Amino acid sequence: MLLVCTCYEEGKALWGGLPDQIGGRREGDVLVLGGSGVRLRPVEDRGWDHLRGGNVPALVPDGGPGTPVAVLADVSVVYGGDGPLLIDLTAIPGRGVRVPSDRLGEILTALLGGALDFDDLVRDTDKYGMYQGDGGRPALRTPTVPPHRPFPALPSTASALLVRTSFDDEQGWLALLEEVGGVDEDGWVGTGLDPDEIDVEHYPLEALVVDDPAFAGLGPGHVPALVPPEEHTTLVVLADARTFAEPGRPLTVVDLYDTPGQSTVLPCREVGSMVCNLEIGNMDFHEFVAVEGVRPWWIG
Asked: CA-CA distance, 52 to 232, in Å (whole number)?
């Protein structure tokens, strides 16, 4: 199983304290995890600096024989002390879940033996995307539906994408676009606004619009692998069936970095502020994940 480094400084791979935290012992060019017998092969390439988890399956197109996941040591592991990121290589390639470092061997053994599958991990994450973490159970769980068909790649952009995934309510879609400022001739919403007229409490969403039936039914878990690696897209916003059925036109927002494929649901008026805060590093994705029993800060 691959242990991929995606954090580099001046071309040197950084692993942080992960090799010690996971209890690995060296046997040649592999790490054997404690009594589990799981074998990890550390791999490095400075071209993978800041590689997104969603792009990892393309590096291992066959997943590797009998290998359901890849393990990532990313910037959150090296500098944030987070657990390693497991990337799904088989069920819905590209989605991710973090696991406690000291339980990595146990969890990988369960995955390899069939006692767990990746959907089990996704269903039991906290708001930080940590499997069986203590950060609170998200109020709205990320759906774990399997892919019903392949999807095309999404456009490459360094901003956000607003992707329509439900095509049953044309008037609702047009009303949503109008509410977020209308689409310009290049297919963007939220551009060319007068700074003096912007409500800083509900910052407008600036995003490239994707209105293509090829993305009908696209789920959060499918998204990370569809985002091209050339640009560092901030996040992907889905206008799904919920958007056109509930008050406030809620949008499903998908994380591409900390826990690829993790989602949260926000009223459309709040998504622009989320994009803005993530772009400038002022807030993290988990701060927008509503937790069961806790009133979200963005509700009055």
From this structure: 9
